[in-house]
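protien #1 (seq + structre)
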Amino acid sequence: MDANSQVAAELLRALMRTAARFAEAGRSVAQDYFPHVRTEPIADLAGRAVRLGMELTLPGHELVFEVRVRVGDDVFTITGDLVLDDEESRLDLPPVETDDVGRFVALLDHYVDELTAPARGHVGSLIEAFGGS
């Protein structure tokens, strides 16, 4: 396998792992707060821009946890955020660029950790404010 093919394979594995991690986090939160929370995966793999994440729907609110990856000719760019109700940013992760696939994979894992770790707390606060449990 040539170097470009190896990079592509590593990139694909990292994206698949990211999608799986968001899916698992969404299922876990939805199970903890059943029947108040539903989860929907975000997986848009079209072209050079990729969106991965999860949308959690709960009474009166939607939380969207998302990373965006852009693959350029010589660079990978990652951004991420957590947005409440399509308007209030709860967490903005800055854009990071790298030309090293190993560093990219580590950054992607870090961004997923940063977004999924507070998910349960955000949902709990919103459910409590709504008056459910």
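ok now protien #2
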Amino acid sequence: MFSIDVQVGKSSPARLAVVADTDLEQRTAVSRQLEALGFTVAQASDGYEALSIIGEREPGIALLRSHAESDDGERIAALARMLYPRTRIIMTTGPADARTGDDAFTVLTLPADARGLDRCLLEAA
């Protein structure tokens, strides 16, 4: 006898994204844009919660918030990259926290438009 176990309804990790941001409106807006592109999205209120989700669900993409006043976002992103190398990391930042072009991660400035998100998804690939 031959059988195959298939989990129906479970999304492919490549089409799963995690969006972490303390700002609920920003998190929801980015999540909606990703869902419009066909992603299943898990939301996290901060980077530590996102790390937990990344470890459990192994998403293809994680969008983690970076703030100028704290380097927690970069630390969490570096840890995520080290522990979960198959998850592509995109840092999100507000206009006030904008960076120069020397970032170690792809950066998406919020509020994001569809072209900006598409660019980041391509760069992170």
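The first helix runs from residue 24 to 36.
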